[in-house]
Amino acid sequence: MKTTLSVNELVESSSAKLPREIKAFIAKEVLSINKDPMKATKVFVNQLEKLEFNRQRQVINATGTILHTNLGRSPIESNHVARYTNIEYDLVKNQRGERNAYLNALMKQLLGAEDVAFVNNNASSLYIALRMLKQKYSIENVIISRGEIIEIGGSYRLPEIILESDLKLIEVGTTNKTKTKDYDEALVKNQNSILLKVHRSNYSITGFTEETSIEELNSLKIKHNTFLIHDLGSGLVVDDNFLNKFNLSIFSDEPKVQSSLKSGVDIVMFSGDKLFGSTQSGILAGKEDLIKNIKSFSLFRTYRCSASVLYELEITAEKYVSKNELEIPFWKIISESYEVLKNRIEKVTENSNLNFQILNGESVVGGGTLPNKFITSPILEIEGTPESILKQFINHDIPIVPRIQNNKVILDFRTVFPDQDIHIKHALQNL
């Protein structure tokens, strides 16, 4: 038996579909720690297997969570294949042009905003807006309701963002009740303050509650000659007629970006990959002078979006403006009828020898939006050992991610695209 292994021998022992250079890099690391050939080979194979599974690739989302943060939130059908683009080039004048000129026009029309700006995520939106207000307008404090001091996934905490912006956080009211007079008193006591309203998109407070409206905050803003910022987060912009047509009553209490601007907000910000239904980004809209100051601010370039992100936002905005909302995958998914989904499940399970049931289930929007809201959907419940089924699903050509509920494997077809049904059918046949 060999007492040593070379890097080349270890590399050649692997069938993993990874670049040879990566295999060699890992082989060197493994052999520097493990001298025993059998142990080194086992560790090497395990590390490559994990690495191969971590390559970014398409998966089938059968969890029923539409904006699944771990699966990329809002699904998009990317068409951005350009080698070079006219992202900042004027093809009419044949010279350097305005960045995002067409996207800006689309979004201003859609939102009813004086101007818009785009950054890489919504946390950036708030941070850069606060930093700009401090530097350009000598703002020192941010006044916010205690009931809106949020934390979202990835350990994002609002107070920390405000602290990093070099502003002081002033909490007013209580967790369940914040009145107009609470804001008013804080503005009197603290000069050079702005008002920040934050949408509680990932949790709800019910019962004995009171909340100050955007309209009331706007009146205070005018009275004290300051600014009103609205961190809307989720970013609902779709037309009410669309929601009514498909009976999407789960959005009845969700604030809209357009309403926020009409109510007097100076800057509203939201995510591009939540209810807007596009790619990861942060979108700021509002008063022209403030947005222009953000775009000319020294930090803005740090958070500027790439050409591919801006292209996806442009395509999505076009669909909204043209009233083709069903061409946006998020809205197609959420508006699909129960009957259509059930028919798809029946076709997939036709002539199947599996033990399964088609049951009434509930899908969720997810992505830190619409807490306690559910969408009725048919689900496929598969009998068997969850661990074994899950392993086979994950090892499928296109990994299938189900949900485990009451120790049962559940496939929720609301989040499965129709052209993926054939893959699920094949996976079920192999169980």
Structure notes:
By secondary structure, this protein is α/β, with parallel strands linked by helices. It folds into three domains: 7-53; 60-74 and 336-429, Aspartate Aminotransferase, domain 1; 89-330, Aspartate Aminotransferase, domain 2. The chain contains 16 helices and 18 strands. It has helices at 7-12, 20-33, 37-53, 101-111, 122-137, 158-164, 180-189, 214-224, 240-245, 257-262, 288-296, 307-321, 329-335, 338-348, 386-394, 421-429; strands at 60-61, 65-67, 89-90, 95-96, 115-119, 141-145, 151-152, 156-157, 168-172, 193-198, 228-233, 267-271, 282-286, 356-366, 375-382, 400-401, 403-405, 408-412. The protein has a seven-stranded mixed β-sheet, sandwiched between helices. Strand 14 and strand 15 form a beta hairpin. Helix 2 (20-33) packs across helix 3 (37-53), helix 4 runs parallel beside helix 12 and helix 7 packs parallel to helix 8. The model has no long low-confidence stretch (mean pLDDT 93).
